[in-house]
Structures are given as structure tokens and as C-alpha cells.
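ugh ok fine here u go
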Amino acid sequence: MYPPASKLPESSSSAPPPAAPASAPPEPVTGVPVMGVFYPAPPTARVAFRVAPAGGAWTTGLCDCDDDCNSCCMACWCPCIPVGQIAEIVDRGTSSCALNAVLYCLVFHVSGGLCQWVYTCAYRARLRASYDLPETPCSDCIATFCCQTCALAQMYRELKNRGLDPSLGWEVNSRRMMTPPQTMEGMTRL
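structure:
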């Protein structure tokens, strides 16, 4: 089970360990100790997120759908859901997600699928006004008429990057904004 004593590395107590150069400070020992040997510590995970500017600039571009594929797919296949979620956040809870989704679907069906972009355009303009965002790369009407999927996904990403998750609704987001960060009292770090 154990290697014979003749195969173990010899440790001579008569020879002093090699000394580090006097000019360089000794490096700290880092890693994970395993039976007296230190292995390198695993790399720490880095979390990437965008910091939203105070105003005046979009955090993502109109065609940056690859930043959040889920919102892009939802905007493409079932646009009434992100429209409802975005509208509830922009309206600050005065209208519900379900109501806005039904209104969007009603406009879609009554107009034969030709005028639902007007509903999205109205909320894009309100979102821009609330965060002082520029009308770039084109006007709200052109963005929502030519590519409503991209415009919806950009609005969804903008809210998420500014700390509001449209999928949670206004009630949960408003509580999250009002709650101070939690601290663990009585705990010390060793």
C-alpha cells in the first residue's frame, strides 16, 4: 500500500534549504494543499455584465441580439410576451403585463398583422424618454416597423442592463430597488 522506505525521497537535515535572493521578497504560498504538496488554486470565475450609463446612450445596439438570445427568440416567436413585460415596467405597474399583451394581440389581429409595430413604437418612445436615450441608429418608427424583433430585444436588454428584469414584473422589481443590500451580522471572515 505504501512505497517502501527505500523509494521515498530522502530528506537530509544537514543541508540547508536554498535561500531566496535577498532582493526579492518571498512569494506567498497559494493553492490547495494536498498531502503536503500545493497545487495551483483554481481560477476564479469572472462575471461579465454591462454597467448601464446614467443616460444618453443605449447599453446595446439594435442588432446585438446575440447578447441575450432568450429575449431575441421570445421577441421573434411570441412578441406579445416581451411587449407586455416591457410595457408593465415602462408604465411602472399601472398596467399589467397580461393587459398589454392582450392589447398587442388585439391590434395585431384587427389590423391583419400590419399595425402592431405602432404599439411597440409607443413604448420604445416612452422607454427612450424615461432614460434620456437617443433615437439611434434610426427613429423609433423605422426601428419598430423594419425590425420589430430587434427593437423589442433591444428594449428588453436595456431594462435588464439597467437593473430591471422585465420577466419579474414591476412589483418584484420595485421591491428589489427599495430593499437595501443584506449584510450578515455576527459573521467574521477568517
